[in-house]
Each structure stands twice: as structure tokens, then as C-alpha cells.
Amino acid sequence: MSDLAEPIPGVAPAVTRHPARGYVLYLCAATLFALNGTISKSILLTGFDPARLSQLRVTVAFLILLVFVAIARPSALRLRRSEIPILLAYGVLGVAMTQYLYFVSISRLPVGIALLIEFTAPIMVALWFRFGMHQPTKRTVWGALVMALVGLALVGQVWLGFTLDGLGVIAGFGAAAALAIYYVLADVQVRRPDARDPVSLTMWGFGAAALFWTIVEPWWSFPWSGLAGNGFPLGTDGQAVPIWLLCAWMIVLGTVVPFWLVVVSLQHIRASQASVVGMTEPLLATFIAWVALGEAMAPVQILGAVIVLAGVLLAERSR
Question: What tens digit of pLDDT does each residue of 292-310 get?
Fold first, then answer.
């Protein structure tokens, strides 16, 4: 979500439930999202602009989803005037900013740490429902907040001074805030009487993000020549992969396919169950980045990561 991997609420299953299948599908999605962090960083380390990479990702993903929706459910292509403002907010604040700030963060921080900071979004959502919406929230949300802060302090090894890149940390928390907005706006939209299905909702979200980037970064100035080089070498043997191929992976196997796996998995398991599986994403991302990019974390940082994820899980259950 990170790469927008949060379960989308309001998906009504129309098939027989097979929980084991749902868990496997969601784990596959989490693995692809985790791998995408390393793929994206391999591109960014060549100097590719995070804004342009975000633009490329959301625009091509939108076009792929547009074709799918046009074939599978053409009626979903119709836009109601009343939903345009919230779809624009959903796409610009929730989708475009999450992608962009996440890319800025991983370009300056280890992938696992950047993703861990972004994964604090559910705690922000829980706090929003408590203070912004004045909805009853279990007291455990405070325990979740404390756990997350303690865990992040261990990850950042604050006793050694502020060792992490400041802009990377700010971008990570910005991505978390944008992701929290994505969750809240998605929740608002799927609860409408005339709610959209998750696929067309995501399609229009990506469409709004693509429109935003087209205005901010016109396509006629896109650095197409940057796609001709090789990404940062992956693995211990220093194997370099063409940037255009990494971008294709990022869009198809790092965005469209895992999203589809999430939607299908939620036909078999509940969102609360899927969120538990989703906690594996930062851990998988950390391991993959360690193997592919040499981004190792100290044992105390791994302990901090586990504490943060426990806090996030506690915040999820508080809602």
C-alpha cells in the first residue's frame, strides 16, 4: 500500500470460503509487496526521481486496471458527480502521496526501516477515529502507541544519537500519514449505500493520482532515457537488471498482481485476519533488502521492529 497492502474493507465474498487458501494468497501478496521495496530502491539508487517513478507506477497501473474494469464491469467506468471530490482526495492524498513519500523514504533509509515507519499508519487511523471521529476506542490503543514509539526508538538506536537520515524519517512518517488518509477515505467510500467495488475504487484512485502527476510533472518532460540504463546491482554477485524491466516488475508484480491477490484472499478470510498476515511484509522486506542490497539490521533493531509490529497489531484490534 507501503505499497497499499492494507485489506480493503467492504468486500463481500461470493464464493465458498477456504481460509487456508486466503492466508496463502495474502502471504503471496505481502511477499510481492515486500520484494517491490527492493526493486523500487534498485531503480532509485540510480538517481531516478521519486516523483517520476511514482508517476510511472500509478499511471501504468491505472491503465491496466482500466482495461480490466472495462472488460469485466464496464458499468463501473461511470463516474457520479457526487463522488468526484472524494475520489480526487483519495487519489492525490491517499495514493499519490503515499507512493511518492515512500519512494523518498526508501531512497534515504534501509527499506525495512522505511516500511516499518510507514506501517504505523493503523495507529494513526485508530487515533483519528478516537479524537477526530469521537468514536469509542479500546484503551489498548495507548499501549499500541507506546509500543510503537519504543520499538521505533530501538530501530533508530536513539542512544547513539540520531543516526537515521532526517528527511528519510520525515518522508516515512509522511507516507504513514498519507496511508492513514487512504485507509480512512477507502472506509468512507465502501460504506456508502452506492459503494463501488474495490477494483474500480482502486482504479479511480490510481487515475486521480495519475492526473495529479500529469499536472505537476508533464509527460513531455519525462526522462525516458533513464529507463535505458541498469538498476543498482542486486545480490552478492552484483547482477544488474535493466531499469525498464525493474519498472515493469514494479508495476505488474509489485502493484497490480498483489492487489488482485489481496482482493481474492478477502473472499476467504476477514480483513482482521489478513492484517495479521500483513505484519510479515516489513520483516520480509528487511530480509530481501539484506540479501539483495546488503541492508543489514542490528539485533536490537530487529527487536524494535517486532515491538512496532506488535503495537500496530494491537492498534488494529483496538478498532
Answer: 888 877 888 888 888 888 8
223 Cβ neighbours under 8 A, 6+ residues apart: 48, 49, 52
Other beta carbons within 10 angstroms of residue 319's beta carbon come to 15
pLDDT at 9: 45
Q: Rounded to an integer, what distance in angstroms lies between the CA atom of residue 251 and that of residue 237?
A: 25
The amino acid at residue 310 is A
The residue type of 306 is: V
Structure confidence by residue, pLDDT tens digits, 278-295:
777 888 888 888 888 888
Q: What is the mean pLDDT of residues 238-252?
A: 87
* Longest CA span, the chain: 57
Under 8 Å CB-to-CB from 44, ≥6 apart: which residues?
50, 53, 103, 106, 107
50: Cβ contacts below 8 Å, ≥ 6 apart: 44, 100, 103, 104, 107
Residues 130, 132, 133, CA angle at the centre, nearest 5°?
70
